[in-house]
Amino acid sequence: MNLLTFRTEEDLNRAGAGLIASLLQIKPKAALGLATGSTPIGIYEELVKLHRSGSVSFAKASSYNLDEYVGLSGSHPASYRCFMNTHLFDLVDIDPANTHVPNGLAVDLEQECDYYDAMLEDAGIDLQLLGLGHNGHIGFNEPDDSLIAGTHAAMLQRQTIEANARFFDSEQDVPKQAITMGVAGIMKARQIMLVVRGASKAKIAQQALTGPITTQCPASLLQLHPNLVVLMDEAAGAWA
Ligand code: GLP
């Protein structure tokens, strides 16, 4: 595991965007595993800057997002599809047809999950970007006695609903279910970049990265990945 702590958010964002940009320079057709939440926003902003300066092109790349709320259409402002369009896809030269986010409106969720897994298998994710939930979740793989390997519809835990309520008008509006890539799907990526910011995540980051590997902390499974890079700001990485 490569653990990197940055003095400023700007340094962290540049490093994160730099990793993605270098991959695209070496492999223009890279399959990117992307994430939402507040954590990756700065990295996407840096990528947009790099794109505008001509340093990076997404023209041949494809993207696969980790998760999407069940019941939200892509035009809902709190949907992850809308998030991705706003923060990255609409601002760079990626072909919209090559951007993939699970369909939260699918009538048959099981079928949608199978379809998504088949696509992931076919694409082979080169780099998976991840944030970290306060309870140790990755994507929407919540702490539990067991975890699910493939893409599946997951029930969100109270803590996750509360944490994500800031993106909705009220807590009641937060969907209770989401489609998420499973832990096997995530672990299959050739490289994983976990990004953690803020003092409120220091404890869970330490637990996930140095504590026991347990399904009660899904991010702890990342310790098993052969090519994991962790980018933390000073507050989140104070223990490292
Ligand atoms: C959500 C997402 C995760 C994300 C996490 C952390 O629940 N499903 O993919 O990593 O929240 O979000 P944030 O970066 O806003 O703290």
UniProtKB/TrEMBL annotation:
InterPro entries to which the protein is assigned, alphabetical: Glc/Gal-6P_isomerase, Glucosamine6P_isomerase, Glucosamine6P_isomerase_CS, NagB/RpiA_transferase-like
Catalytic activity: alpha-D-glucosamine 6-phosphate + H2O = beta-D-fructose 6-phosphate + NH4(+)
Residue ranges of every copy of the Glucosamine/galactosamine-6-phosphate isomerase domain listed in the record: 18-223
Record's signal peptide: none
EC number: 3.5.99.6
Pathway: Amino-sugar metabolism; N-acetylneuraminate degradation; D-fructose 6-phosphate from N-acetylneuraminate: step 5/5
Source superkingdom: Bacteria
Keywords, in A-Z order: Carbohydrate metabolism, Hydrolase
Active-site feature positions: D67 (proton acceptor), N135 (for ring-opening step), H137 (proton acceptor), E142 (for ring-opening step)
Protein role: Catalyzes the reversible isomerization-deamination of glucosamine 6-phosphate (GlcN6P) to form fructose 6-phosphate (Fru6P) and ammonium ion.
UniProt record similarity statement: Belongs to the glucosamine/galactosamine-6-phosphate isomerase family. NagB subfamily.
Annotated protein name in UniProt: Glucosamine-6-phosphate deaminase
Organism: Saccharibacillus endophyticus
